[in-house]
Design goal:
The protein is mostly helical. It has one domain. Helix 1 runs antiparallel to helix 2. The longest helix is centred in the last third of the chain and has 30 residues. The radius of gyration is 14 Å and the shape is rod-shaped.
């Protein structure tokens, strides 16, 4: 499994938590940071999935 896949999933989870904390506290900056981190995690996870798929096809 590609490390980007796991790191992306972790980053996505952290972003979701940060976003929720921002919403609960009314802190828009923390909420936006969490949303951004969550989206970066999604992209990173998808890149890892693509790398895994490519690796499987080249075997």
């Amino acid at each position: 499994m590609d490390k980007n896949r796991t790191e992306g999933a972790v980053r996505q989870a952290k972003g979701s938590i940060k976003e929720a904390i921002g919403k609960l506290t009314g802190n828009k900056r923390v909420e936006r940071e969490g949303t951004a981190e969550k989206n970066v995690g999604k992209v990173q996870r998808k890149a890892g999935e693509a790398a895994d798929a490519l690796r499987e096809k080249t075997r």
